[in-house]
Amino acid sequence: MKFEVKKCKGQITSTEFLIVSVVLVILFTFATNFWNIVAFRFGEKSFRSGLELTALDISDILINTPGTPGNWQDDTSKIFSLGISDSTHVMNEKKLIAFTNLNYTQAKKALGVPAYDYKFRIRTLNGTVIYQSGLDPSATSQIVVITRFVLLKNDIMKMEFGVWS
Asked: What is the pLDDT of residues 90-143, one digit of tens each?
């Protein structure tokens, strides 16, 4: 018995071409969808990290610095940097009152958060709001609230600072 070997000249049939094309389209679609999901999640995490860093930085500045100029509460039109403390974690009530009386746009500019909305609160340890400034958050998916303990009139209070977009 003698076997004959057929000599192929690299030709494919239309059925083979169709199968390979369908497989490639499916693989390409899967890869594209996977890439979009990964990019979206990375973007969300990056945005969230930016919000966290912004909220932490601003809360640090508020509770650790007197602001610039040091007597900005006397003339709020000349605020360069907003701070509401006399020393680390010790709040100056005059500055606190001046800050909460600023209009929202001026406060955002002084805080350095023109791209974000914010909410600031000073609460007693039992939750009673003593001072507040800013907007209440709407139905937003990304909000970051930093809570710090401060001293106001020799009482321990909670300072909350939240940002969102």
From this structure: 999 999 999 999 999 999 998 988 888 999 999 999 999 999 999 988 776 688
- Burial-class residue 102 by CB neighbours within 10 Å (0-12, 13-18, 19+): middle
Rounded to whole angstroms, the Cα distance separating 79 from 81 reads 6
Please report how many Cα atoms fall inside a 13 Å half-sphere around the Cα of residue 50, on the Cβ side. 12
pLDDT tens-digit map of 15-25: 887 888 888 88
53, 56, 90, 134, 164 from 125: Cα distances, Å: 25, 21, 16, 21, 25
pTM: 0.72
